[in-house]
Amino acid sequence: MHRNRKVKILATLGPASSSPEMIEKLFMAGVDVFRINMSHTSHQLLATLYGHIRHVEAKVGRPIGVLCDLQGPKIRIGTFADKEVRIAAGDTFAFDADKTPGDVKRVYLPHPEIFAAAKTGDSLLLNDGRLRVEITDAQPDKLTTKVIFGGVLSDRKGVNLPDTVIPIPALTEKDRSDLEAAANVGADWIALSFVQRPEDVAEARKLVAGRAWVMAKIEKPSALTCLEQIMTYADGIMVARGDLGVELPIESVPARQKQITRAARRFGRPVVVATQMLESMVEEPVPTRAEVSDVATAVYEGADAVMLSAESATGKWPEKAVQTMDRVAQNVERDIHYTNIIHAQRTEPEPTVADAISAAARTIAETLKVPAIVCYTGSGPTGLRIARERPSNPVLALTPIPATARRLALAWGIHCVLVPDAQSIEEMFSRAGEIACREGFAKAGDRILISAGIPIGTPGTTNLLRVATVGKDGRAV
Known about the structure:
477 residues; alpha/beta; TIM Barrel; M1 Pyruvate Kinase, Domain 3; Pyruvate Kinase, Chain: A, domain 1; 3 domains
């Protein structure tokens, strides 16, 4: 089986979707990669969910990706004597190092690194941005603020500091433990939360040590100032619009989404658009028209994947949410304007043999209108290079490595198939035709385009293109 769309669907597992039966239903409805949120998942549950996914994978005979999303550093205030207080615009309110329960004038902030980094004029956003205060006096153990937007503030609410680069690592001790558990269990992607600097991603890559690909979640304004440097370390990017929409003016998020998506494509990194895509489907069986337009915008923009969070994790209609996302994506990709929009975003290939081959593959495939581009890839970069070109033709990636097939499940337009290592060029060509026919992309008499590298089995040697004809026996010659 293969999908009738090129954008991929990433769905979060949770109480509504943790059984093997529901995971299979979600895959059949259109999920390509499952996300496991480590904020709510023990290591034991992680192993159980991973086992369920691999059981479904074996049953359906298709590679399925697994992404483990690390919690990241959570900054929260302390508690109040009366559980909550109401602060009003114009009030003075303080955050200090005193562990005593707070009141309407102050609250404990158990983060000395914030006292060290914050300065007069910086803003603090509380309770997912519902309340906003501005620092009027910054001391080593106390921040005095003026309330800009007031409201109810209760125990342990989160704090965002959009104007401040906080000298804390992106990986907490919990994250390090979760990362090791995820890598050991076999996760294909590990997502790093609250990235501020390229060094954050470099540290995660060092810990992962090649056992998975690392995805940087862009949800801090500071990450946008060094986006290209982050791209050089990350294997993939997520536009995490939840916290990004808290720390940035909400009206700027669509433009930032385009900026991140296009930068990721320029660097050849898979990019996921996430958060509240079909939020109303947590409760309702049908999304709003605005939500449908939001999903469609991400598809038109050329995102590799669109993601469901609470819709599939805790919602009442997880299967319907996936089906809806699938239908929206298919309809967008059938639009007569879609190809022109995608092609208008194309960037020039890098001056390397592999990039030149990938660009030529798209041009030849579209000129000859071949039913498929078949590429051989070992560790995955060849498939990603062709995906970056966004060809209108299907891309069939053949690899002998299961981890590569699962990781590429997140990449735009790639249908990955596990194959044994080829022993000769002739075997590569004949097998390409057989698999293209078996997978439903081609038939006898069709021409297909084959991309490969010689010497066979040598990484980074994509240097060959061939137009082959599928014979009556299914082999390409």
